[in-house]
Amino acid sequence: MEELQNAVKDGGLAVSNLPEKGRCLLTTKNFYPGEVILRQEPYVCVPNNTVSRCDGCFASESLKKCSACQVVWYCGSTCQKSEWKLHRLECIALSRLEKEKRKAVTPSIRLMVRLYLRRKLQNEMFIPASVTDSCNFVEALVSHLKDLDEKQLVLYAQMASLVHLILQWPEINLKEIAENFSKLACNAHTICDCELRPLGTGLYPIVSIINHSCLPNAVLIFEGKSSVVRAVEHIPEGAEVSIAYIDIAGSTMTRQKTLKEQYFFTCTCPRCIKAGQYNDIQESAILEGYRCKDDGCNGFLLRDSDDKGFICQTCGLLRSKEEVKRIVSEITAISDKELKYKSPGNQEEAISQYKMIEKLQMELCHPFSISLMRTREELLKILMEVGDWREALAYCRLTIPGYQKLKLDC
Ligand SMILES: C[S@@+](CC[C@H](N)C(=O)[O-])C[C@H]1O[C@@H](n2cnc3c(N)ncnc32)[C@H](O)[C@@H]1O
After folding, report:
1. Could you tell me the residue range of the domain that residue 257 belongs to?
2. Which pLDDT value is given to residue 394?
3. What is the ipTM of this complex?
């Protein structure tokens, strides 16, 4: 712990322990909006497999497969060389696998294999190690192993067996690998591009000490594979640095459920402690509820006591359950086909499907609904992909009021 404190001290940070949260990152100086609090390279990382990506820079174009293992891609010799020390061992291990088994090597499995290989290389001093770049930090990560249900434990045990099969190290501890999978689940971060599209997963030693808040004072972004934590408001000396682990645009109930399921804690941030209060109920009904039948009314709807439907809290109009159900099932029917239309080359079809969803959501949801905002964001992305800048700009403008409202309400 002392070495870790020394490593973060010069950056105006300190590591502490809070009884209700465990370790946390504190500031020892003021940070101002936009200021970088921390930059860190991943200890290990891996691109995701939705499309092929270069292991070095995560680019998805002009790639060549590693001819030996046939699993890993590179965009050129620079990236291949930069990854070689680690991939050399990984490549030998993957090449031993039968072709069919190689297909089961998911990004999570690769991340774990790389974690063990990096530890080996550092232990044998083939690559340098430092306090913030050594496998020792893995031991201190929270695992929540005791909170896992049987299904999850069985899954991690199976994944651990596959890692064992790949590495073929007789002395390896299967229980430790399974526990490390549990650690990755609550400590690794999704690496996104500047448009917040997921590119891969990485484990960042200091970033993994930062706790969550639904009203965070910092944001985690990525420049390539480097993580950057920036202040989004003035963070005074002695305050805890917090980021959002999840989409914080959802209602308190949705956020709490996601945090409990994925990270095993109940959030007590300033937004969450308002759970059940009138303002919080109103916010939830706006974010995830329905719109008033009267187009001119901006009221939010709550379920009526007779369970006939939803009553507008401003004008008292009722929306029947049947009407709501009908529109929801129409949206679901289109959304089910959504993935097919998202594939490259199908953008025109995707735009028309998303516009149909948007039209139905405008009829059903409150104008500041999250679902409507997400649909518009998807439309914005696809319109940018096809270079329809005029319409993309129009959709960009439509999403702004939702974010402004969210910021004001918080
Ligand atoms: C990435 S780790 C953060 C560092 C962690 N506190 C530690 O001791 O290493 C994520 C875990 O920290 C805890 N945590 C994060 N944010 C929290 C919060 N707001 N309230 C309570 N626990 C929190 C949860 O146990 C969660 O699974």
Report:
1. 1-41+210-223+233-275
2. 97
3. 0.99
